[in-house]
UniProtKB/TrEMBL annotation:
The lineage of its organism: Bacteria, Pseudomonadati, Pseudomonadota, Gammaproteobacteria, Steroidobacterales. One of its GO terms (molecular function) is sigma factor antagonist activity. It holds the Pfam family FecR. It comes from Steroidobacter agaridevorans. The keyword Membrane applies. Residues 82-174 form the FecR protein domain. PANTHER family: PERIPLASMIC SIGNAL SENSOR AND SIGMA FACTOR ACTIVATOR FECR-RELATED, PROTEIN FECR. This is FecR protein domain-containing protein. The chain crosses the membrane at residues 54-74. Keywords: Membrane, Transmembrane, Transmembrane helix. It comes from the Bacteria.
Amino acid sequence: MLDIYRYHGYGRKAKLHMRSAPDTDPENVIPFGPRGLTVVHQQALRMKRRRARLMKVAAVVAGVAFTVVAGWTLKATYFDTRIATGPGQWDRAMLSDGSVLRIGPNTRLRWAFDDSRRMIVLSEGEAVFEVAKDPKRPFIVTTQIGDVRAVGTEFGVSLMNASTAVVTVAHGKVAVSKHNDARIVTIDRSGDVAELVEDQQIVLSDSGVQPVKQVDASRELQWATGYYEFRGETVREAIEQFNRRNRLKVVMSDPAIGAIAMPFTTVKLDDPETFVLMLAARPDVQVAYENASVIRLLPE
């Protein structure tokens, strides 16, 4: 019996078994003619030996994966290098270096590590990165808009759309750079990339870079838990939180509804219907289910 071990991105170890068939199996018994092997059986034996060689090669290749990211060829030591979530789906992954990803709905990302860097490519959506310290291998999150570089910290990156990214730092420090066509250009006027520390946030877009601002990072990244605590935000702001993450969309027929202040409450971000029923308890708001994908808020 040949045991082949391979490691997955979440630290799982799978054992594959290749057990040789007993010698008495019909496919392993080759009849001999009066002058030894017949031509047909000689061909069968050669094919069998060739299959055995190919299986050995496949077993070796299965132990290594190669991924091309942002122009670099990186050798990965595991196989689970992609995650995709749908509407209303949250996920969590532990990488081989001990870093943890908390991934929001409608998100696509992939990763590959080598001896000099840890690369994450975020194509869509949002994620929070709890980075394990490794000074020799910086942790880089790259998007179509810009890059975030860290060594050991916790931060979140949200792609609001194809041209806007929001970077929020919960702990530690990160360096942020913005893409300009195929090049990476600096953000601040000193010639260095912008550096963010705890409770700071920056917005990158095709049209430019907004100034770094102070925020409550734990609140800004609260979405990663699947819950959100509203503290007087408007209904419009609440709807944006739900619509970004769910298939069921909430729309307003009157902009005045969007200006209503939300009560102080905690809601599940994958449950827009409970949010709508809470609004329906108000005397000035009606709710209409247009179809399986749309709930409309109407003035009374």
